[in-house]
Amino acid sequence: MRTRTYQTSYSGLVALSTHSVTWVWVGLGILVLVLLPTLLSSFGLNMLTAIFVTSVGILGLNLLSGVAGQISLGHAGFLLIGAYAQAILTTDYRVPSLLAIFLSGLVAAVASLVVGIPSLRLKGLYLAITTLAFTFIVRHIVLFAEDITRGSAGMPLEALSVFGFSFKGDTRFYYAALVMVLLFILMTLNLMRTRIGRAWLALRDHDIAARAMGIELIRYKLLAFMVSSFYTGVAGAMVALQTRFINVDTFSILISIEALAMVIVGGMGRVHGAILGTALIIFLPELLNISFALVGDSFRTLMADRIYEVKGMMYGVVILLFLRLEPEGMAGIWRKLKRFWVQWPLSQ
Amino acid sequence: MNYFLNLLMSGLVIGTLYGMVAMGFAIIYRATGMVNFAQGEVMMLIAYMSYTFATLPGVTFIPLLACVLLAAIVLGLVIEWAFIRPMLGEPMFSRVMVTIGLAVVIRSTVILIWGVEPTAFPRPFGSAVIRFGSMALYPGQIFSLATLAVLSLVMWLFFRRSRIGIAMRATSNNETTALLMGINVKRISAIAWALSAVFAAFSGLSFCLMFSLEPEISQMGLRGFPATILGGLDSVVGGALGGLMIGIAENLAGGYLGRGLKEIAGFVLIIVVLMIKPYGLFGQREIERV
Q1: Residue B3 counted as domain residue
Q2: What ipTM was assigned to the predicted interfaces of this complex?
Q3: Contact A122 B101 (CB under 8 A)
Q4: CA within 20 to 30 Å of A199's CA: A131, B138, B139, B243, which one?
Q5: HEC string for B78-131
Q6: Is residue A20 classed exposed, middle or buried when 0-12, 13-18 and 19+ CB atoms within 10 A define those classes?
Q7: Domain span at residue B134?
Q8: Does residue A8 lie within any of the structural domains?
Q9: Which of B34, B42, B95, B100 is best to mutate for the A interface (most A CBs within 10 A)?
């Protein structure tokens, strides 16, 4: 029987994949994703692109909340910083847009030190509130620093182009997003099997015990913050490149809650969970739309008039349901399904 | 000088709202060790319910207050019973996330039922300005100041003198020991949620009496955080003082330092305060052992 639990060497415990057949499945999956644009309408394609772009940020939040155990309600702020950094760097400073994506991540990471350093002395809930404060402050700075950010008018962006090849258009940007999310998944998986990833897990499970085992709390907490906001900054830059126009209103507090919903729905601390959770939360409004259309026109107008509230209610209900019924999230469901089929017919 | 006094006074009045919100946060933190991120939304829901009560024909202020307080207590108990108690023993992250989920659901429900447009709330005390020397106050503002003063005094006595208050302090200090001493910890948690809803009711009413009935009430929950942190998450009376301080600081910053600073002054202040005193001004330092 296949098992991942028993290993005879330490390298086996930290290997990226225990079975070589996994790589075949991964290869097939990527092949399907590469071929998909030929089958999908532009609506479906845009949705998949949105899932990829959002996944990058959720992977980052998952590292901070799920792996390192720090609650952040401020990721809308980092997303905002990433998006504006991308816009300002490419339009005002003429930085090549691919380079600008990673620079935006770095800008967000540096900004995270502003929250990270005061939060070193804080734990849990105090930290959540400081990050919330950070979002408010960032929004205000962006609104009032009109010389740099153009205030409430928002900023248009140029399309992504790499060495003269422009990623304008749905299909081309889809591939850019796909490459980006694969890059970040690989990065996350590798990060989690190094000393840093294990130190974060220890930090989450018991920080004093972790400290007694020689993990420098300050360094690893700050690192978790910086890495997480780097991811989110990059995601912000990608969001900006996808929508090609950014505005402070796009990055409300609801985004932070939506992001936490994605992490919880996916399953905290799991990489595939982050992707599944993102996909589910992005698909949900569409599912609602379809089911409302079946019920009748009055519900459809409700959906059109009050989309913000209906969405908010949906995130709330999904968070509550998953926390009560399946705290492990989609990753847990996936694990149980897999165990069922692997052990069949002996499964319970 | 007059400008300064007026800023101070209006800051004090706004501060009473923050103070009441902060007291609502602190009492739940005190009894259960968690932060209720839905405090602002509970406040919003009760405010909208009280509007429905107030527009019934022939309702005067005292019956209205009684109805609202009763509704608040029931609401607090229901939330505790349906969402908070089943999560006992789960990690803190999940328990706090439940309140965040609840917050979004309540806000959306209220807007879907009552709509987003601001509505004028009935003014049971009239709207004539009352003058104190060079300062002028509306009756709603005086109601808010008086309520905060009474609530702080009652809470101070509650935690010093009453059996339940002392039991609550014991529970927050060490839940297991409190359980062994014969304190009904589940009942303490229910009482804390009910009391917090009562604070939400008073702050919601005060908000409506001063401004109008609008969805922005729920923002008061987020805007009350600086007060809570400044006073110390576990100090109920400290929260009231923290609220007054934040209100004054915000208004002075808005009045003297320029536009836009009013909204973020509180948040900037707490980030600075937390660097110096991580548990707020009146909060208790937690000492941990492995």
Answers
A1: no
A2: 0.78
A3: no
A4: A131
A5: HHHHHHHHHHCCCCHHHHHHHHHHHHHHHHHHHHHHHCCCCECCCCCCCCCCEE
A6: exposed
A7: 14-218
A8: no
A9: B100
pLDDT in tens, A189-204: 888 888 898 899 888 8
C-alpha span between A317 and B103 (Å, rounded): 10
Per-residue pLDDT of chain A (348 residues; tens, 9 = 90+): 455 667 777 777 777 777 778 888 888 988 988 888 888 888 888 888 889 999 999 999 999 888 888 888 888 889 999 999 988 888 888 888 888 889 999 999 998 887 777 766 666 666 777 788 888 888 888 888 777 778 777 787 777 777 777 777 788 888 888 999 999 999 998 888 888 988 998 888 887 888 888 888 888 888 888 999 999 999 999 988 888 888 887 787 778 888 888 888 888 888 888 899 999 888 887 887 777 777 766 666 666 677 777 878 888 888 888 888 888 888 888 888 888 888 888 776
Among A132, A316, A323, beta carbon nearest to B105 = A316
User: Within an 8 Å CB–CB cutoff, is residue A323 touching chain B?
Assistant: yes
Residue B7 in any domain: the answer is: no
Reading the block at residue A256, the tokens are: 């932070």
A215 close to A233: Cβ distance less than 8 angstroms: no
Q: How far apart are CA A30 and CA B213, in angstroms?
A: 53
* Interface check A309 vs B, CB under 8 A: yes
For residues A197 and A187, state if they share a domain: yes
The answer to whether residues A157 and A57 belong to one domain is yes
Helices (H) and strands (E) in chain A, counts: 16, 4
Q: Do the strands B135-137 and B130-132 form a parallel or antiparallel pair, or are they unpaired?
A: antiparallel
Boundaries of domain holding A339: 253-348
The reply to whether A7 falls in a domain is no
Same domain as A159, residue A45: yes
Indicate if A215 and A324 belong to the same structural domain: no
Domains identified in chain B, total number: 1
**B100 falls within a domain:** yes
Number of H helices, E strands in chain B: 12, 2
pTM for the structure as a whole = 0.83
**Number of domains chain A contains:** 2
* A177 and A264 co-located in one domain: no
Residue B210 counted as domain residue: yes
Please judge whether A122 and B274 are an interchain contact, meaning their C-beta atoms are less than 8 angstroms apart: yes
